[in-house]
Amino acid sequence: MARLAGFPDAKIGWVAYSGGIDSTVLLDGLVTVRSRLPFEIRALHVHHGLHPDADAWSEHCARECRRLGVPLEIRRVEIPHTRGESLEALARQARYDAMSTVLGRGDLLLSAQHRDDQAETLLLALMRGSGPAGLAAMPLMAPLGEGWLVRPLLEHGRAELLAYAQGRNLRWQEDPGNRSLRFDRNFLRHRVLPLLAERWPSCAASIARSAANCAEAQGVIDLLMEEKLYKVAGRRPDTLSIASLGDLPLPLRKLVLRHWFRKLGLALPDSRLLDRVLCDVIGARPDADPLVAWPGCEVRRYRDDLFAMAPLPPRPPGGAIHWGRGGLSLPGAVGCLELLAPDGSPLDPLDLFAAGLEVRFGVQGLSCRTGRDRHRRSLKKLYQEAGVPSWVRPYVPLVFVDGDLLAVADIRTCHSDGSVGMRQFRLRWRSELGDRLRVGREEAVGIEAG
């Protein structure tokens, strides 16, 4: 617990409180020393409704927190489950997602994983064929949301926690699911580790030391990979240069890619998928449109840039969207459009265009004239000049006035054939999707209406 004094900026220490023995020991231990802690203790319980007794567990947590004088927050989550996905992994991710949103800047999420949990985590990573990053298992502390995830009990074993709980006459809830051998972690806990402990009594501590050694090694690898990422960076933020990657030896190329995925917060590929990225995407022709995807990640290329991102959302519908007063919210995850004066102040489309504007997506065969006396150029040519990847183009909002193409989002502006007066304006496309895909844009370019 002494390490918790190393977080002077934390205002709140949230205890991840399930009601089980581990989190009960952690909460009780923190309460006994709370006068010496630099932050307020609160408890956080995630109710995901996966067990018939989930309501009873929440009620138990509420009673214990009232007894201890600890504020409790209960978060309810729903876990969508599709065939082939691990319900255990989905529930764990849902808990962390819910808890991360509670953390204020610098606050702590205090989790009760212990040394035996660490041993189980490393063995699971071995069964997956993980490298040093996976074998590092669970760190003592790691960034989470706006705060930190901290595991104060990581150096203590399950037997120590049980002895503490019994000595303090603590009350906790037993999850029958923790005995089910259909879960890999339970199989290791109840069958494998006890057998190992018969031969090597201190095996859990030894395995935990191996995890710590792997974590140290991974820390050195991360430092080296940061330097390499800088040298192979692509022309756009968060991309890699395919030509520069090709100059690296194959083992180093794989390390750089894995570090890149982790840094972007994306799911890591297995060895087979990583080989496909190297062959099918990096090895593709510069004018190809390759894609390698796995749950939570898509890898593509455009020219010399290698992209990795969360899966694209469904394409917007093809019909026209009327744009009248104010800004326009676009469907799905495409964002919104704003009409602005040259000084950045907002304009109403109806102030410039009596009938308003229309927005469409994915229209084929269009052309654009960027000035009164210039020739028309195809939309495909404009996309190529602006460096807009082909897989981004269906999401780019196309703005029309009286049937003429007026603007391609805030990427390019077109001279309308109709007469709409001599006023200046510009468009702003606010879009997480557009920002994430690094669409090339004009900076505050005025558009002459008319």
Explain this structure.
The longest helix has 29 residues, at 203-231. The protein has helices at 21-32, 54-68, 87-100, 115-127, 132-135, 158-167, 184-199, 203-231, 242-246, 250-263, 271-281, 349-352, 379-386, 432-436, and strands at residues 12-16, 40-47, 72-76, 108-110, 141-144, 147-150, 240-241, 291-294, 297-302, 305-309, 321-323, 328-329, 336-340, 346-347, 357-360, 367-368, 377-378, 398-401, 404-408, 412-413, 423-430, 447-449. The radius of gyration is 28 Å and the shape is globular. The strands form five sheets. Strands 3-2-1-4-6-5 form a six-stranded mixed β-sheet, with helices on both faces. The chain has a five-stranded antiparallel β-sheet with strand order 11-15-18-19-20, with no helix packed on it. It has three domains: 2-210, Rossmann fold (3-Layer(aba) Sandwich); 236-309, Up-down Bundle (Chorismate Mutase Domain, subunit A); 321-449, no CATH class. With 450 residues, it is α+β, with helices and mostly antiparallel strands.
Task: Output the keywords.
450 residues; six-stranded mixed beta sheet; alpha+beta; Rossmann fold; 22 strands; Chorismate Mutase Domain, subunit A
CATH topology term of the largest domain? Rossmann fold
Head-to-tail CA distance between termini: 70 Å
Q: How much strand?
A: 15-25%
The helicity comes to 25-40%
CATH architecture descriptor text of the largest domain: 3-Layer(aba) Sandwich
Gross geometry: globular
Low-confidence stretches: 442-450
Strand order of the largest sheet: 3-2-1-4-6-5
Mean pLDDT: 85
CATH homologous superfamily identity of the largest domain: HUPs
